[in-house]
Amino acid sequence: METENLKVVNKRVLKMDALGLACGEPVFTDDVDINGMLYGRILWSHYAHARIKKIDTREAEKVPGVKAVLTYKNVPRVPHTTAGQGYPEPSPYDSYVLDNKVRFVGDRVAAVAAETPEAAEAALKLIKVEYEILPAVFDVFEAVKDGAPIIHDEEDAKNIPDAKHNIAAKFDFEVRNGDWFKDADFVVEHTYKMPYLQHCAIEPHTVITSFDHFGRLIIRTSTQVPFHVRRIVAQALRIPVKKIRVIKPRIGGGFGSKQEVLLEDITAALTLKTGKPVKIEYTRRETFISSRTRHPATVRLKTGVRKDGTITDAEMDITLNTGAYGSHALTVMMCSGSHTLPMYKVANNIRFIGKSVYTNLPVSGAYRGYGATQGFFAWESQMDIMANKIAMDPVEFRKKNYIRLGEGSPVFKAMGEGREGVEQVITSIGLYEGIEAGLKAINWHEKKKKYKNQSGQLRRGLGMACMMQGSGIPEVDMASATLKMNEDGSFNLMVGAADLGTGSDTILAQIAAEVLGVKAEDVIVYSADTDLTPFDVGAYASSTTFISGNAVKKTAEKVRGMIIAVAAKILDRKPDDLRLEGGKVVAKDGAACSLSEVANTSLYYYDQHQIVASASHYAHTSPPPFAANFVEVEVDTGTGKIAILNYISCVDCGTAINPELAEGQNDGAVLNGIGHTLSEEMEFSSNGTPLNASFRRYKIFNTADMPAIKTILIPTFEPNGPFGAKSVSEIGINGPLPAVANAVQDAVGARLFSSPFTPEKVIAAIKNLQPVS
Amino acid sequence: MKKENARLKAVNGIFEICLGINGVKKSFSVKNTEFLLDALRRHGYKSVKKGCDTGDCGSCTVIFNGKPALACLIPAFTAHGSEITTIEGLGTVQNPHPLQEAFVEAGAVQCGFCIPGMILSSKHLLDANPEPSEEEIRKYLDGNLCRCTGYVKQIQAVRMAAKRIKNGEKRFRGKAS
Question: What pTM value is reported for the model?
């Protein structure tokens, strides 16, 4: 295997920006002081659905210090999507910088820029708006009915499949090999529900826009998608791409919420209007309401199973709530099937029926897991229900059915992201090893015996779930890198990839260093600046390690070739006899020269040239990482409280480029998933007003709440990945919901179908206790 | 403190306050409506982060007169005469504090936004309790939210730092190149 002689990859390398961050260096978007900067504020809608009949900004404009007030009347009207996706985006073009209609509580009405925050806020209060209140709809199943309020009735929106029925996206497909459920001994059908969830990146989204001395617009933003931001802002404000530079400093977490144009367009519009630098930062409340959320989901899953453990048929019917706009409406919905349906062999028929529906609630978007979280809650719950039905051990049932090395699935081809997918077979899988490691770590068999005949108020139980995800979007995502050599044998690596706290800058440096035979610290990374780094779609779809990593590897290989060409002349050896090692070029016979000698020769002495290269990567497959998660819970049958005693997450991410960072990614994803499971839910009043848009009322886990979590990396070698790597950042979030639901069933015999699993729901499930079939 | 406040007078809503930040005496002009978080950031202490501005996330934690406090909840003028430590006062990239080193080495820093607050809370914990148990660490850090790490490596980092401080170890000293 290629991993055996690795020196930098798969080794402990400290995250390169960690010390600066731990010392509080001013590296985030908001950590700069810009002279003459104006403060931007947005007037948000208090109504869930209303038309702006009149808007009068005259009084607001008179407030001392106010420099601009924007409404739909004085910004360009260009239908676009805010989703930071590859072009042409598969999302509907249903968004405007500002519109004459508001579609949820928290939608934009107007924007102000002023010399002080106080003046900006005073001006907001003086904007007079006369609304025509429209009937609103908050339930997806109401929204699709004839006669429901039409949320996108504007004529210039594009790519909305059925605006009259509020359908923002739909996709169906079927693999038919005979009559439905004819071979099934049992048919199991259940509906699983997930509510609105927020990302809760601790840094609120912040944007600062300004003009440089060439009159170009500089957008400094906490984004996961700098190149998409450049393109979408250019489109929405009708300015040329060449007039825009997007710079991503360090980002304080994203988890998908920043895979979006959230404030960049409106902040830029204020700078265009005033000629001055403008900053807009979300408050925490605004982050909850007006950034993005996870799509609430209703998943109906109907499966057939034979007594021998064969899954005969699977029908997955998913309805997502995309909220007021269709950002990621199609793609998240498709991923809820495309990332889950290939997981197990289905002998006969597969059907997927998906739609994303507009409602007058906050906008759903990309969120770590991207549909797979919703899909796996259903699938992995149902796997246990089916196993119980046929009296098979749920672990054995999964082992019998999961996709094997070399196998494909009709789903890969049928369902991509927003379009047809790409055929692929599994080229690496460590699921068996993951299951075995997890069973051992949680002491499954012994504890199962121990908990068999429990009595009393506290009952313990064990549950597990298996998952897969992807590694980038095949035949869609592209990343590139540029690498240049310096006199001292160090390298500058320029990548479009956007490190959002994941450590991608570090792992990309490791990949380059491995190829070049140097230490990771000899590779200086500069990332995510549309002027200075080559294109990359950005940090999403678990693509960075796999797609950007391959781009860096290719680039480094090109540079290695250039170094060897120079060294061959210095050493008077054949290029084929040379290799890079320990900061030197070494010949087979032991002759060697340092990289600095190579660099100096190329820069100053002979056939002078800069050793520099670029390369891009575009993948035809998206090798899934696999994971097996195990959990032990204690359920208080009196209070309904679920305590997670131990959580083991075994993940096959191929070669972990940086094992510590890979573990950290998975730990974080798992705890986020545990939050989804036990406490997180955005709540709304009957008129669509968010009720718990703060950390005080929307509970994410803290150190005191968190259970024991252990990530176990299961090494495999993915032949298409850089040094065998696959993705790792998203998969972990998909496990806790089904694993805990399965463990609760194991403990008390009651099944939970709707998250979060609050004590009230647990008590209700126990009260209604009847064998779930 | 009370005595100091008594001498303060707002002129046009602006207070002139004196305070010690990281051992250096400073004079700030602060608005009467302003909170310490905004005042500190405005005066260049960018390590004090605004994650919620409502006292819920812990990102703006500073050591305020010897105790961790949330800068977003302290009216700025009441900081007159106080002593404040921000993460800049704990250690620097050239000469980090063992807690900063440990957070790096344990892989406890992902996006890093919550880290200054979390390290300052940890510092106060270790000052009071040099050998905390895992339970004590968890209990003490419960006011510092992090969404990236799952806290697993952060708790390890505090334990690592405690051990190193006890043994007088320091890793990165002089390794500023």
Answer: 0.97
A256 touches chain B (CB under 8 A): no
Residues 58 through 97 of chain B touching chain A, CB cutoff 8 Å? 59, 86-88, 90-93, 96
User: What is the span of the domain harbouring residue A283?
Assistant: 34-134+202-253+258-290
Which residues in chain A touch residue B52, judged by CB atoms under 8 angstroms apart? 284, 694-695
Q: What is the pLDDT of residues A614-638, one digit of tens each?
A: 999 999 999 999 999 999 999 999 9
| One domain, residues A233 and A119 | yes
Task: Enumerate residues 6+ apart whose C-beta is below 8 A from A155.
Answer: none
Cβ contact, residue pair A19, B96, below 8 Å: yes
Last residue of a domain, one of A618, A641, A676: A618
Distance CA A572, CA B59 (A): 59
pLDDT tens profile A244-287: 999 999 999 999 999 999 999 999 999 999 999 999 999 999 99
Tell me which chain A residues have a C-beta less than 8 angstroms from the C-beta of B53: 283-284
- Per residue in A311-348, pLDDT (tens digit) is 999 999 999 999 999 999 999 999 999 999 999 999 99
B173 touching chain A per CB within 8 A: no
- Please give the DSSP secondary-structure letter assigned to residue A556: H
Residue A74 sits at φ, ψ, to 5 deg, of -125, 25
Q: Are residues A592 and A657 in the same domain?
A: no
The ipTM estimated for the assembled molecules is 0.96
- Answer whether residue B91 shows pLDDT above 50: yes
Cβ-defined contact of B107 to A663 (cutoff 8 Å): yes
Inter-axis angle of helices A736-748 and A372-389, nearest 10: 30
**CB spacing of B112 vs A250 below 8 angstroms:** yes
Optimal mutation site among A12, A703, A710, interface B, most CBs of chain B within 10 A: A703
Q: What architecture (CATH level 2) is domain B98-166?
A: Orthogonal Bundle (1.10)
Distance CA A165, CA A152 (A): 10
Question: Which sequence spans correspond to the domains of chain B?
Answer: 2-89, 98-166
For B2-89, CATH number?
Answer: 3.10.20.30
Rounded Cα gap, residues A345 and A495, in angstroms: 39
Query: Are residues A264 and A117 located together in one domain of the fold?
Result: yes
Closest-CA residue in chain A for B109?
A: A18
Same domain, yes or no, for A228 and A362?
Answer: no
Strand order in the sheet with A478-485: A523-527, A491-495, A478-485, A612-618
